[in-house]
Design goal:
Distance between the termini: 53 Å
CATH superfamily of the largest domain: Hexapeptide repeat proteins
Number of helices: 3
Strand order of the largest sheet: 6-9-12-15-18-21-23-24
Largest sheet: 8 strands, mixed
Number of domains: 2
Structural class: alpha/beta
Strand content: 25-35%
Radius of gyration: 17 Å
Number of strands: 24
Shape: globular
Length: about 210
Protein backbone atom coordinates (compact mmCIF):
# COMPACT_ATOMS: atom_id res chain seq x y z
CA UNK A 1 0.00 0.00 0.00
CA UNK A 2 1.23 3.48 -0.94
CA UNK A 3 0.38 6.08 1.71
CA UNK A 4 0.36 9.82 1.01
CA UNK A 5 0.12 12.60 3.59
CA UNK A 6 -1.20 15.98 2.46
CA UNK A 7 -0.67 19.09 4.58
CA UNK A 8 -3.51 21.55 4.03
CA UNK A 9 -7.16 20.48 3.85
CA UNK A 10 -8.06 22.97 1.13
CA UNK A 11 -9.91 22.84 -2.16
CA UNK A 12 -6.47 22.63 -3.74
CA UNK A 13 -5.83 19.68 -1.43
CA UNK A 14 -8.91 17.92 -2.81
CA UNK A 15 -7.51 18.20 -6.34
CA UNK A 16 -4.16 16.84 -5.15
CA UNK A 17 -5.89 13.92 -3.41
CA UNK A 18 -8.01 13.17 -6.46
CA UNK A 19 -4.91 13.26 -8.67
CA UNK A 20 -3.07 11.01 -6.21
CA UNK A 21 -5.83 8.41 -6.39
CA UNK A 22 -5.68 8.42 -10.19
CA UNK A 23 -1.90 7.98 -9.91
CA UNK A 24 -2.30 4.86 -7.76
CA UNK A 25 -1.89 6.09 -4.18
CA UNK A 26 -4.00 3.80 -2.01
CA UNK A 27 -4.14 5.57 1.34
CA UNK A 28 -4.47 9.37 1.45
CA UNK A 29 -4.54 11.23 4.77
CA UNK A 30 -4.84 14.97 5.41
CA UNK A 31 -3.26 17.08 8.13
CA UNK A 32 -4.37 20.63 8.83
CA UNK A 33 -3.81 23.15 11.61
CA UNK A 34 -7.59 23.68 11.90
CA UNK A 35 -7.84 20.12 13.26
CA UNK A 36 -9.70 19.02 15.42
CA UNK A 37 -12.24 21.69 14.46
CA UNK A 38 -12.45 20.01 11.07
CA UNK A 39 -12.25 16.24 10.57
CA UNK A 40 -12.49 15.68 6.83
CA UNK A 41 -11.80 17.23 3.46
CA UNK A 42 -14.50 15.82 1.21
CA UNK A 43 -14.15 12.01 1.38
CA UNK A 44 -10.66 12.15 2.91
CA UNK A 45 -9.97 12.05 6.65
CA UNK A 46 -7.97 14.67 8.56
CA UNK A 47 -5.89 12.92 11.23
CA UNK A 48 -4.06 15.78 12.91
CA UNK A 49 -2.24 19.07 12.52
CA UNK A 50 1.19 19.90 11.10
CA UNK A 51 2.97 18.79 14.26
CA UNK A 52 1.27 15.40 14.07
CA UNK A 53 2.49 15.10 10.49
CA UNK A 54 6.07 15.85 11.52
CA UNK A 55 5.82 13.19 14.22
CA UNK A 56 4.30 10.62 11.84
CA UNK A 57 6.25 11.46 8.68
CA UNK A 58 7.96 8.04 8.56
CA UNK A 59 4.56 6.32 8.21
CA UNK A 60 4.07 7.76 4.72
CA UNK A 61 5.67 6.93 1.39
CA UNK A 62 5.25 10.54 0.34
CA UNK A 63 4.21 13.97 1.63
CA UNK A 64 2.77 16.95 -0.26
CA UNK A 65 1.89 20.47 0.84
CA UNK A 66 -1.50 21.69 -0.40
CA UNK A 67 -1.21 25.34 0.60
CA UNK A 68 -1.86 27.85 -2.16
CA UNK A 69 0.13 30.71 -0.59
CA UNK A 70 3.54 30.27 -2.19
CA UNK A 71 5.55 31.69 0.70
CA UNK A 72 3.77 29.53 3.28
CA UNK A 73 4.01 26.44 1.08
CA UNK A 74 7.73 27.03 0.57
CA UNK A 75 8.34 27.39 4.32
CA UNK A 76 6.39 24.21 5.12
CA UNK A 77 8.26 22.29 2.42
CA UNK A 78 11.57 23.40 3.88
CA UNK A 79 10.42 22.34 7.35
CA UNK A 80 9.34 18.90 6.15
CA UNK A 81 12.51 18.39 4.12
CA UNK A 82 14.68 19.34 7.07
CA UNK A 83 12.78 16.83 9.22
CA UNK A 84 13.52 14.05 6.72
CA UNK A 85 10.05 13.68 5.18
CA UNK A 86 9.90 12.09 1.73
CA UNK A 87 8.34 14.58 -0.67
CA UNK A 88 6.18 13.13 -3.42
CA UNK A 89 5.76 14.44 -6.97
CA UNK A 90 2.44 13.97 -8.78
CA UNK A 91 1.72 14.09 -12.51
CA UNK A 92 -1.88 13.54 -13.57
CA UNK A 93 -2.10 10.97 -16.39
CA UNK A 94 -4.08 13.56 -18.34
CA UNK A 95 -1.09 15.91 -18.38
CA UNK A 96 1.57 15.93 -21.10
CA UNK A 97 5.11 16.13 -19.71
CA UNK A 98 8.17 15.75 -21.90
CA UNK A 99 10.63 13.03 -20.93
CA UNK A 100 13.24 15.79 -21.25
CA UNK A 101 11.65 18.02 -18.59
CA UNK A 102 12.72 18.03 -14.93
CA UNK A 103 10.21 18.29 -12.08
CA UNK A 104 11.23 19.21 -8.54
CA UNK A 105 10.18 17.16 -5.55
CA UNK A 106 6.90 18.16 -3.97
CA UNK A 107 5.53 19.47 -7.27
CA UNK A 108 2.11 18.68 -8.70
CA UNK A 109 1.04 18.72 -12.36
CA UNK A 110 -2.71 18.67 -12.93
CA UNK A 111 -4.89 17.39 -15.78
CA UNK A 112 -4.48 19.05 -19.15
CA UNK A 113 -1.19 20.76 -18.34
CA UNK A 114 1.59 20.65 -20.94
CA UNK A 115 5.29 20.81 -20.04
CA UNK A 116 7.66 20.72 -22.98
CA UNK A 117 11.27 19.66 -23.54
CA UNK A 118 14.05 21.40 -21.66
CA UNK A 119 11.83 22.74 -18.88
CA UNK A 120 13.24 22.73 -15.36
CA UNK A 121 10.88 23.15 -12.41
CA UNK A 122 11.97 23.59 -8.81
CA UNK A 123 10.75 22.25 -5.49
CA UNK A 124 7.05 22.40 -4.65
CA UNK A 125 5.63 23.95 -7.82
CA UNK A 126 1.96 23.92 -8.77
CA UNK A 127 1.43 23.42 -12.49
CA UNK A 128 -2.30 23.85 -12.59
CA UNK A 129 -5.11 22.62 -14.81
CA UNK A 130 -4.69 23.15 -18.58
CA UNK A 131 -1.74 25.54 -18.36
CA UNK A 132 1.29 25.27 -20.63
CA UNK A 133 5.01 25.69 -19.98
CA UNK A 134 6.92 25.71 -23.24
CA UNK A 135 10.46 24.60 -24.10
CA UNK A 136 13.43 25.63 -21.96
CA UNK A 137 11.48 27.53 -19.30
CA UNK A 138 13.11 27.57 -15.87
CA UNK A 139 10.79 27.82 -12.86
CA UNK A 140 12.07 28.33 -9.33
CA UNK A 141 10.83 26.89 -6.06
CA UNK A 142 7.20 27.09 -4.89
CA UNK A 143 6.01 28.67 -8.16
CA UNK A 144 2.34 28.52 -9.12
CA UNK A 145 1.28 28.52 -12.77
CA UNK A 146 -2.50 28.95 -12.63
CA UNK A 147 -5.15 27.26 -14.77
CA UNK A 148 -5.01 28.28 -18.41
CA UNK A 149 -1.82 30.34 -18.09
CA UNK A 150 0.66 30.20 -21.00
CA UNK A 151 4.44 30.51 -20.77
CA UNK A 152 6.25 30.75 -24.12
CA UNK A 153 9.70 29.29 -24.67
CA UNK A 154 12.67 30.28 -22.55
CA UNK A 155 10.72 32.08 -19.82
CA UNK A 156 12.26 32.30 -16.34
CA UNK A 157 10.07 32.50 -13.23
CA UNK A 158 11.66 33.16 -9.83
CA UNK A 159 10.98 31.53 -6.49
CA UNK A 160 7.48 31.83 -5.01
CA UNK A 161 6.08 33.74 -8.00
CA UNK A 162 2.49 33.30 -9.10
CA UNK A 163 1.28 33.47 -12.70
CA UNK A 164 -2.46 34.17 -12.57
CA UNK A 165 -5.26 32.37 -14.33
CA UNK A 166 -5.26 32.87 -18.09
CA UNK A 167 -2.11 35.01 -18.11
CA UNK A 168 0.35 34.88 -21.03
CA UNK A 169 4.11 35.43 -20.86
CA UNK A 170 6.12 36.25 -24.00
CA UNK A 171 9.16 34.16 -24.92
CA UNK A 172 12.45 34.80 -23.08
CA UNK A 173 10.84 37.04 -20.43
CA UNK A 174 12.42 36.93 -16.96
CA UNK A 175 10.12 37.19 -13.95
CA UNK A 176 11.74 37.71 -10.56
CA UNK A 177 11.13 36.21 -7.13
CA UNK A 178 7.87 36.84 -5.25
CA UNK A 179 6.09 38.31 -8.27
CA UNK A 180 2.33 38.21 -8.85
CA UNK A 181 1.06 38.28 -12.43
CA UNK A 182 -2.63 39.13 -12.49
CA UNK A 183 -5.35 37.13 -14.19
CA UNK A 184 -5.34 37.40 -18.01
CA UNK A 185 -2.31 39.72 -17.99
CA UNK A 186 0.04 39.75 -20.99
CA UNK A 187 3.67 39.98 -19.84
CA UNK A 188 5.89 41.42 -22.58
CA UNK A 189 8.66 42.95 -20.44
CA UNK A 190 10.86 41.57 -17.67
CA UNK A 191 9.43 41.86 -14.15
CA UNK A 192 11.71 42.57 -11.14
CA UNK A 193 11.44 40.89 -7.74
CA UNK A 194 8.43 41.54 -5.53
CA UNK A 195 6.26 43.35 -8.10
CA UNK A 196 2.59 42.79 -8.94
CA UNK A 197 1.68 43.35 -12.60
CA UNK A 198 -1.73 43.42 -14.25
CA UNK A 199 -3.27 44.27 -17.60
CA UNK A 200 -2.49 44.09 -21.30
CA UNK A 201 0.37 44.76 -21.63
CA UNK A 202 1.14 43.95 -18.00
CA UNK A 203 2.31 46.89 -15.90
CA UNK A 204 3.07 47.32 -12.17
CA UNK A 205 0.25 48.28 -9.89
CA UNK A 206 0.66 51.85 -8.72
CA UNK A 207 0.05 52.33 -4.99
Amino acid sequence: MKSLAILGASGHGKVIADTAEVCGWDNIVFFDDEWPTIHSNGPWVIEGDSQHLLQRRSEFNGVLVAIGNNKVRHARLMELTSAGASLATLVHPGATVSRYAELGLGSVVFAGAVINAGVRIGLGAIINTACSVDHDCILGEAVHISPGARLAGGVGVGDRSWIGIGAAVRQLIKIGDDVVVGACAAVVRNVPDGVTVIGVPAAPIKI
